[in-house]
Amino acid sequence: MSTLALGAARAGVELRQFWRERDAVVFTFALPAVLLTLLGSLFSGVYDGSTVTPAQYLVPSMIAAGVASTTFVNLGIGIATDRDDGTLKRLRGLPMPPLAYLIGKILLVVAVTLAEVLVLVAIGVGLFSVDLPRDPARWLTFGWVFLLGTVACALLGVVASTLARSSRSAAAVLNLPYVVLCFVSGIYFSPVGALPHWVIQGGSLFPLKWMAQGFRSAFLPDTILPYEVVPSWEHGRTALVLAAWCIGGLVLCLTTFRWRGRQTR
After folding, report:
1. Which residue from 58, 84, 131, 154 puts its CA 20 to 30 A from 216's CA?
2. Is residue 228 over pLDDT 80?
C-alpha cells in the first residue's frame, strides 16, 4: 500500500478511537464554544462606521482559536500519549513510514476541526447574529485559510509533542504556548488594531494571527478594515505565511519526530 493509503487507513482507526472517548469529545467541542459564548456576551454596541458588533468581530477569531485548540493542543497531547503508552513503539514494528502515521493524525484533526467550526459558526449565527457569507469568493477564502491553517497548526502540534516528557506533562506543555499565542494574536481582544505594537509584531510571526485575520475577511464586511492592523485583509501575505509554516512544520516533523519517549531506554 502507498503511504497515502496507509495514512487514510490509520485515520479511520484514529476517528473510531476518538469518538469512543465521550468525555474527550465533549470537552474538545465545549471549551471554544463556552469561551465564545462568555466573551461574546461581555461586549455591546457597534463599531463606528460599521454595522459589526464586538461580539461578531470575536466570532471568526474564536473559530481560529478552536482550530488551533483541536489541532495544535489536542493533536500534540494525543501523540505524546501514544508515545508514552508504547503505541508508537508498537507501530514502529509495522511496515508503516512515519509520514503515514502523521497523515492519519492530520486527517483526524481535519475531520474533528470541521465539526468544531460548525459548532462555533452555529453559535455565532444563533447568539450574535453573524451573517454567513453570500459571496462564493468569501467561502473560497475561508476554505484555503482553513486548510492551510489546520495543516500548519497540526504539524506544529506534532513538533511540540516531542517537548513533553510524558503524557502527564503533555497538557501543560501544549496549553501554555497555545494560551500565549491566543493573546499575542489578538484572539481575545477586539479590535486587533488597538493592540500594542510589540504584541502585533510578535503575533505576526505565528500562523494563528493570520488564520484569524483570514476568517474575519470571510465573515465580516470591509467596513471593519479601519479596525484591523492595516486597512487591508492581506490575503497574499496570509497565504504566504501559512504556507511557509506548513512547509517548515513538515520539515521539523520529519527531522524531530520520535517513536520512543525520552524515558524509554
Report:
1. 154
2. yes
